[in-house]
Specification:
6-stranded mixed beta sheet; Nucleotidyltransferase, domain 5; 14% strand; alpha/beta; 235 residues; single chain
């Protein structure tokens, strides 16, 4: 499936209060390979950015004054995204702004143009409960180089998110074996009987058990004592 990593920069935090999009960055992934077929727009929002937002993206009103309005790029953007899985970090924020821009044009909601929207923030919270899961935090945790990210930029952040996503989902391919040749022919595979294989079991030592208990205690504290293992212990 064609996957598009998308990020926006905006004049502020609240689309319903009149804040607008100032930048959109999109990065294409096809069969888990970056294609270079990306999209990037700077947009004139018709208003100034809030001071705090300007500190984040650094896109001044002077810089954006001669850039196109959203309506001028809407068809090009939607044609590019059509029928793809859209992957966004904290998707509710970006989709909310895209929906607002589309409403102003009398267009259908964003999700009606794409197959689905996947939120990597929700994915990260499931994979790393109780930890910081900002894009910067995930880059540090997964070994993704974000040293060039002095300011937020939509295209750079979409590129970083693609690398983060590939690392987060790498295990999905770890057990797959490619038995097809370049010309589509299948190679014969000799089955191996593993029933007689005796697995070596290495019990955890005291240090590892203590470290494990510490992690469980941290998760338990974050959940307010409602973790499954604590509840089952009290029954």
């Amino acid at each position: 499936m064609r996957q598009i990593f998308l990020d926006t920069e905006t004049t502020g935090l609240y689309a319903d209060s009149g804040d607008r999009i100032v930048e959109i960055g999109c990065v294409e992934l096809l069969n888990r390979k970056l294609t270079g077929n990306n999209k990037h727009f700077y947009l004139n929002p018709g208003r100034d950015s809030h001071e705090e937002a300007l500190k984040v993206h650094g896109l001044s009103s002077e810089f954006l004054r001669d850039k196109p309005r959203f309506e001028a790029v809407a068809d090009e953007l939607l044609d590019y995204l059509q029928g793809s899985e859209i992957i966004i970090h904290n998707a509710a924020f970006d989709v909310g702004f895209l929906n607002r821009e589309l409403v102003l044009l009398g267009r259908r909601p964003f999700k009606e143009f794409v197959i689905r929207v996947t939120d990597t923030l929700a994915m990260a919270k499931e994979m790393f409960p109780g930890k910081r899961n900002s894009l910067d935090a995930l880059c540090a945790r997964l070994g993704v180089d974000n040293s060039g990210r002095t300011l937020h930029g939509a295209l750079l952040d979409a590129e970083l998110l693609a690398d983060v996503y590939i690392n987060m989902t790498r295990g999905q391919e770890a057990l797959l074996i490619d038995v097809g040749s370049a010309n589509g022919l299948q190679h014969s595979v000799t089955p191996i009987d593993l029933r007689g294989l005796e697995l070596l079991v290495l019990p955890a030592n005291e240090h590892e058990i203590a470290a494990h208990e510490e992690v469980l205690a941290q998760i338990d504290k974050t959940s307010g004592g409602r973790t499954v293992w604590r509840v089952s212990e009290s029954i």
